[in-house]
């Protein structure tokens, strides 16, 4: 042991045995937490959220961490802490334990019943984000028990899938417990099983509902058609004026004005990332896409904003055709944002343009998240590269990611420390999709990766 740092060769030997020894324990704990349906966007699951948070506290305490459930105006946040020495650096590990809704005919297994098959773990939340959270916890226990000089805190959120509306409240009211030197986030995807990634950018989000009321009841299309306004038709026309559905190009004036230009170095990194267009199309089950040009695809999903239609509500949706004109219709949309776009400004641009195109349409604002842009150089980034190479024997790529994590923007704003992303999920794991899964390969390699990362950053001054 030199300068308080244990010999890595000794640690590595113990770590290999530890990972194999804890497999049954890991699988048992993952099964317990997956079978609690912690669906955050549906208020009827509030009791399950509380049950999940209580189990999370229990898990942390079982592993020797101090732990508590921090209340917010919405769902709680669970905070865990293990202080080896106040002089040692402190890392906070962020994950979320809430999940997307699940169910329907596409699920071949019960979504909230944990199923284990040939090293794969099935169930809602296995990869997003309960599996990676427990992977980090098992790594943290090993690190502190084997003398790595680092303090570790866990931040487990239960509202991430609902836009993190109360996460800032948690941060502001727990500042004294959140004095850390860096943050590790494990809630991102690899490019493929052969290509890990370290994202340094996330897209933001601005959601909205476009609502049009033109009457008070369904009316006969024969006796009123030709005179009665059709809100579904008008909203479809409006959407076509807001963006080109074939190309994805947004038509809202000023929408692209603040978009940060992608640098040549970033594009070079994207193209060298190992991204495979054919495989990507296959994994997501597309029959056709807007472009198959690799550079264009990477620009669009990692570095450019979007406009998407998520649902149209109104009229008759049963079998056959009911010849009525409905009195009301609604379109659910969102816009993914990139640096340096601001949700407030983008929403105003949308609202103003809709008012010009069809002043009778209400534009109702939904969740908003700012985009995130971090560093892809420096000691923490280098530590992450070495850690992943140790854990998986693979060199990671630095990329931006198309999704959004609201808590990351909040932590950057208030905690002001380096944030590093070491995700473990694969495209095949089915983020937000039916038949979500995780696997032992990612869990075991992830434990080794996180331990090595803790060892590396314990030496950063």
Automatic annotation (TrEMBL):
Name of the protein this chain belongs to: Acetylornithine deacetylase/Succinyl-diaminopimelate desuccinylase
Pfam families (UniProt xref): M20_dimer, Peptidase_M20
SUPFAM superfamilies membership: Zn-dependent exopeptidases (SSF53187)
InterPro entries: Cyt/Met_Dipeptidase (IPR051458), Peptidase_M20 (IPR002933), Peptidase_M20_dimer (IPR011650)
A biological process from GO: proteolysis
Keywords on record: Hydrolase, Metal-binding, Protease
GO molecular function: metal ion binding; peptidase activity
Domain Peptidase M20 dimerisation: 200-360
Coiled-coil positions: none
């Amino acid at each position: 042991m030199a300068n308080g740092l244990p010999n890595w060769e000794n640690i590595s030997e113990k770590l290999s045995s530890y990972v194999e020894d804890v497999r049954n324990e890991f699988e048992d704990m993952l099964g317990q937490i997956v079978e609690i349906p912690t669906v955050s966007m549906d208020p009827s699951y509030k009791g399950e959220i509380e049950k999940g948070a209580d189990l999370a506290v229990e898990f942390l305490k079982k592993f020797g961490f101090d732990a508590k459930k921090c209340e917010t105006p919405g769902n709680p946040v669970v905070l865990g802490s293990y202080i080896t020495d106040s002089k040692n650096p402190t890392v906070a590990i962020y994950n979320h334990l809430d999940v997307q809704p699940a169910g329907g005919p596409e699920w071949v297994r019960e979504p909230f019943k944990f199923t284990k098959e040939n090293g794969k773990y099935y169930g809602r939340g296995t990869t997003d984000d309960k599996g990676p959270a427990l992977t980090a916890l098992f790594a943290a226990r090993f690190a502190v028990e084997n003398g790595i000089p680092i303090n570790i805190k866990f931040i487990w959120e239960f509202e991430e899938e609902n836009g993190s509306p109360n996460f800032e409240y948690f941060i502001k009211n727990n500042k004294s417990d959140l004095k850390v030197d860096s943050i590790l986030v494990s809630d991102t995807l690899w490019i493929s099983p052969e290509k890990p990634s370290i994202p340094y950018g996330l897209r933001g989000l601005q959601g909205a509902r476009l609502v049009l009321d033109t009457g008070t009841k369904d009316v006969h299309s024969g006796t009123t058609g030709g005179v009665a306004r059709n809100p579904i038709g008008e909203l479809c026309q409006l959407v076509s004026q807001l963006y080109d559905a074939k190309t994805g190009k947004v038509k809202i004036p000023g929408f692209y004005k603040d978009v940060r230009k992608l640098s040549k170095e970033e594009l070079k990194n994207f193209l060298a990332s190992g991204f495979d267009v054919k495989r990507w199309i296959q994994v997501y089950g597309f029959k056709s896409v807007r472009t198959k040009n690799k550079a264009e695809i990477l620009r669009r999903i990692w570095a450019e904003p979007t406009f998407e239609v998520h649902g149209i509500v109104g009229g008759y949706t049963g079998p056959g055709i009911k010849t009525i004109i409905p009195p009301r219709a609604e379109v659910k949309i969102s816009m993914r944002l990139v640096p340096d776009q601001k949700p407030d400004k983008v929403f105003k641009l949308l609202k103003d343009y809709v008012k010009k195109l069809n002043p009778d349409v209400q534009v109702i604002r939904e969740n908003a998240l700012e985009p995130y842009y971090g560093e892809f150089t420096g000691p923490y980034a280098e530590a992450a590269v070495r850690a992943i190479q140790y854990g998986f024997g693979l060199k990671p790529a630095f990329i931006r990611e198309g999704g959004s994590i609201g808590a990351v923007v909040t932590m950057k704003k208030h905690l002001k420390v380096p944030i590093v992303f070491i995700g473990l999920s694969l495209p095949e794991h089915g983020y937000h999709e039916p038949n979500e899964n995780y696997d032992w390969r990612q869990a075991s390699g992830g434990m080794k990766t996180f331990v090595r990362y803790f060892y590396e950053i314990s030496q950063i001054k």
